[in-house]
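Researcher: I need the complex structure. Ligand is adenosine monophosphate. Inputs:
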Amino acid sequence: MKGLMQDWPLLVPTILEHACTYHGTREIISRTTEGPIHRYTYNDLARRARKLASAMDRFGVKQGDIIGTMAWNGYRHMEIWYGLMGHGAIVHTLNPRLFSDQLAYIINHAEDRYIFLDLTFVPLMEALQERLPLVKGFIIMTDDEHMPETALKNAICYEELLAGGDEEYQWPELDESTACGLCYTSGTTGNPKGVLYSHRSNVLHALTTNGADALGLKSQDSVMAVVPMFHANAWSLVFSAPMAGANIVMPGALMDGASIYEMLKVGKVTLTAAVPTIWQMLISYLGQSGESLEHLQRVVIGGAACPPSMIETFEKTYQTQVIHAWGMTEMSPLGSLCTIKGGLDDLSAEEKQALKIKQGRPPYMVEMKIIDDDGNELPRDGKAFGHLMVKGPCVASDYLKNEDEPIVDDEGWFDTGDVSTLDQHGYMQITDRAKDVIKSGGEWISTIDVENLAVGHSHVEEAAVIGITHPKWDERPLLVIVRKPGSEISGDEIKAYLTGKLAKWWMPDDVVFVDEIPHTATGKIHKLTLRETFKDYVLSTA
Ligand code: AMP
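Model: Output:
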């Protein structure tokens, strides 16, 4: 017998309509590419999103058409998300940090019909347009006054487009499984892979990650999405903030410490989220300027492992709670968040600190397990580490137009490519990407653990560990370090600092210093490039 409850499809525009009806005067505060800080409300956002959707009809955009955006986080980008998704089109977020070959590949592979772009990216797109035969036009996200001279074919001014739109536009009735967002993720081999979100997965993901033990957003919050909208759904903040009725703050193009601090202050931000490199810049700025974090209560740190020293600085020096989070594009993206759960109140301060370093535990709707190379499930004892497998309604079931192997096994488990432990309380800790883990004499060394310890040294700005071929042990760790400005610390001093803090056989054989560690388009350490740089390196122990 079926239940007698209503079939109310989980659609993205319902989030916006809810925000309008109950939190219509809450604000979206953006740093614009034109310069000034722009403020308006959810009511304004919804009115303009509807106008945009109706303008798309006039343009002949159909449900299921894929439309690209290359833009910073800002109010217009948010209008485009809601307007297009609500219309039934699919928003394909383009990461401007990708190489031009990759950009051309993903735009053509997705068959983007139009591309919306911020002023910043006009030159980039002008150089690329000849390679994009399917794109019919480019909509420049600015007003008439700032519209540039451009060689882009069919260049349209965003505000002019909107001016002709109908604010009474009615969102069409869609099936909740309709696709609405597309984000490509680049593996180390092969072409980038397209992850195709649905209305249902976005709504469910916003709901589940908004739980009190996860992001826990409330209508009193002011949320700054530093994590870009072109990186894995901006960790859902563009959906979860309006769902909760929280203000949302958009930092635009400027990510340096002073600019981020300014937006924290202007927006009276209570929760914010980004990768560790952004927070490193903010912490340096705070140290130099002597400023404090007046309103900020919680900072979500993920995308790469958060060093324990960063957690300590936020919590002890700035009285801001750190929520260490893990996830991936294929997971919408949040898969786990680290908050102390009920029943663990009796842990000592030290034990709690050790727990906070972990990547956390999954919210409802994410299932997790770890397995060995033969597929056997490993114990949840916090010691055994193996391949991290996940499943749930916000986890990808396939990539767009995938011609390779299926991405989930017969039981629906998706292999994250990460290696981790799971402890008896359900907390997961990433030890490495499977391809980065160092295999020394048949045993695994976690590069993340060694990096976390190294960046705890006050003279170390950034650290990366890679495996170097060794005649006896197959691979041994090489520690690559960027010193803090003015520091002359030596490799021996670093090793002396690490002694006693890690297992003897995990001690890096050598320490080398570089001016800069390469990063990927999503802010992670680019281990592949580092391995390439040091491919001929001969360890002193070899
Ligand atoms: P992306 O799809 O670009 O978000 O990248 C996902 C990958 O980033 C994961 O599979 C992890 O390897 C890495 N990652 C994300 N968050 C964390 C974290 N908190 N600690 C360690 N690695 C992380």
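Model: Summary of the prediction. The chain has a mean pLDDT of 95.
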